Task: structure prediction
Amino acid sequence: MNNILPRQLINIFLAVLIILLSTIHLTAGESLPDKSSSEKPREEKPYLEEIRPKKIWDDISHVITFPARMDLTGSLILAGVLGATGIFMSQDENIRGRIREIPDNDGINAAAKAGKWLGDGRLIVPLFLVSGAGGYLGKNQRLVRISVETLETLALSGLTVQILKFSTGRSRPFRDSGSWDFTGPSVSNEAFHSFPSGHAVTIGSVAGVLAGEFESIWIDLAAGGLVGLTAFQRMYADRHWASDVFFGSAIGIATGYSIARHRKAITAARILVTSVSLQSAQPGIQFTYIF
Result:
């Protein structure tokens, strides 16, 4: 089990590395505009804009600087999440006892197995790398945007979770040492990396991006169901406490939703000057609005 955590860190590192390498590769072949042919309209590629390093860094900066921009609404939401986490912590033992009373059957085991895979970064990261590549080849801006947003969220929220796991050293339920057993900094012993849940963060990241991108109650309900399924599996497998999965889900959802809404706001407000018409009959500047 000690090898599980290093694999998670490697997955996060590879996700960030692949994003950076792909953006560098895709933009490396672009040359400076040729002034001699400025009269020719420049072909716009909105889907390519979604993977430029500058835009990715803008997303990262948006999340990192959130505390400095936090308003009253954000403060109330943060207080609510922390308060709910505290309530769950006070009830972790009772919740674990109730879940352990659930009789074992094939249907529950199958659902739990699906929940585990939904939160596995080894499946989710390649899935969105492939979807991003498919969106790029098909010139589908929304698919590229969703894929990049999800990978960014997984990298940022995943890093946050690993820091919390290392620093708190919370015992996993199966150790039977109690829900308040926090041993402090622990790097090598995976049995003390319960808080928060990495699987919950992974599926929460996907759910947050989808909720921010589509703004549909049906998408929200479906995404919430997937988050709940993964949360249940982590508790059913006795790997995490209820507070672990709640706080992990909140981190992923908040990060993904913030990035998705930020990108949509910028895209909706952006005006591109695509070309200058030199025809005498129709002089002027052509503007293109990207929605």
